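Reviewers asked in the last cycle whether our approach scales beyond single polypeptides. To address this, we selected a multi-component target totalling 650 residues and predicted its structure end to end. The input consisted of the following lines:
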Amino acid sequence: MPNIKQIAKAAGVSVSTVSRVLNQHPYVSEAKRRAVEDAIEHLKYARNMNAVHLIKGRTQTVAVILPHINHPYFMRLMEGIAGEALKYNYQLMLCQTAYNHDEELKVLDMLKNKQIDGVIISSRSASLDQIEPYSAYGPILLCEDVKDRLLSSVYFDHYLSFQSAITFLWEKGHRNIGFAVNRLNNSSGRKRLSAYYDTLKALGGSGRAEWVLDGCRDMKDSAAIFPWLHSLDERPTALLITGDEVAAGFLLTAPEHGFRVPEDIAIIGFDNQPISELLGITTIDIQLNDIGARAFAIIYKQITNRAEGPSVERFQFKLIERGTA
Amino acid sequence: MPNIKQIAKAAGVSVSTVSRVLNQHPYVSEAKRRAVEDAIEHLKYARNMNAVHLIKGRTQTVAVILPHINHPYFMRLMEGIAGEALKYNYQLMLCQTAYNHDEELKVLDMLKNKQIDGVIISSRSASLDQIEPYSAYGPILLCEDVKDRLLSSVYFDHYLSFQSAITFLWEKGHRNIGFAVNRLNNSSGRKRLSAYYDTLKALGGSGRAEWVLDGCRDMKDSAAIFPWLHSLDERPTALLITGDEVAAGFLLTAPEHGFRVPEDIAIIGFDNQPISELLGITTIDIQLNDIGARAFAIIYKQITNRAEGPSVERFQFKLIERGTA
DNA sequence: CTGTTAGCGCATTCAG
DNA sequence: CTGAATGCGCTAACAG
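The resulting structure, written as structure tokens, was:
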């Protein structure tokens, strides 16, 4: 593995000239440029990027924190991020944290340690107070509403989307409304819960703790909904189900559990994944790809322009009425 | 941002002592260790990992090349890889290449440039002859059968799995068998095609070019199958569909196109994704998570033990009979 | 147990 | 246009 010095010697020039051609600087005579390029070719030279990173203080890499890889929600987001990163020739570090608090902080430590230039947090378990100090080391962006912090944010409003879905059901005549959620104990989960109670109250109805089911993440988790429904004295007539996969699982297995959708129970999914279109599930469209793309674009801007402060962007959602509610 | 030198000064020791406590070396007096730790804490020192990477020639990072992020096949694989990487405290670079040849080579260049310690290629467009030379710079593993090369490999045999699925259908009485595939023009696609013709011939039947449909990647692509079927003079009575999502899409929309499954047309999916269980799709189980985990484990072994040569592992598959064939 | 020293490979002033 | 010299921050002999 030759280094820049040996190339310089082979080409009969100085290391700075080699560095100049490596970095496409102007002001290098055509003759020397040729000599250097030949030497590089013959000696099979490859630049050691770690030295470049050390000297530049940048790595052209952004880390993405996400709890689970194998979940359509996060993958659509990731795809949006990756598409944008490609434009700027940035690399992505994929950090699966399973909502493990320590793993999240490890990633932030990589920022501190200059291994990465920025961090995108799709969902988290650590507190904002723990995260915010790391912004001293590089830009951090969260996919949730973050107010008055040194953190950027691209999100759509879970509160409003829940409000809108509940209102929709209410207007359809439903009074007993419940919901099944991936995770209650995080930023979006808590927002959804308040929206649930607030909205129903405002409409003159009320939410009930026993009509809230936690822990529905993927298609298979939908199986848990049925025993839960059967265990209730009074059942909801409509269900919000965060995640179209869960909603799809519910819809597909409902008949064998004695439920007709929407006659016995109406459902609204979330994310407008392909399967919801296929099955005709009423859902809420959030532009996940776009959110991901903006997330990266913002982080990138902050990286390249250090004066740039954190910025916050909210995305719109849209209820798509199909057949299940 | 203090560096190791300033910590040394603040603690009243030499840089090597600081380095020793940083790297948990033995042979440091308790008193000095304390002093160093205090200085680190007070000055908020963080090690610059780029310097460490430069000097060690390693980055504790492996890149994964995959064509599409948002696809369950690759995500299950990725999840397996990530789970194993976590054990060894390795980071993963996610490189979405969309089967773009140049993007693939860019990742291999990162290996050459010492940005990463190894590469896992889940699927590719570049030729093995292009890839193999890069093995001089670090271990490379492909998720396909690679013979007699300086490349590692963890795979399951697409040829055999196709053979087995076709034989299964044949024994069920099917004589007109077709298949719909994600991508014909890559390693697995070509293997499947030969298996298709070979197996049917061996059984005394024959395959037909017009019974092969390319470009079915996700659930929505299943829509293309119906017009294709309708366009055929003589139709297959059974279909292999690589990818359970596509099979699911087909199954769910078949009624509205006038097909009953399996009466009018039998189908076999691939990958044993959750949705195939839910819908009762006959499928081929390949242990994607395990393949991913082994892929990383092998790469890791090669990284840490440079004497270790490339190794090849084949995984078993299993046909799971459910209701669609 | 500890400090001195010599690089790791490269980019970049600063003179020429 | 070009080269010499300096340093990015750290690790690892080596000598005590």
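Chain B has three domains: 4-47, 59-156+288-315, 158-285. We regard this as preliminary and will revisit it once experimental data from Aim 1 are available.
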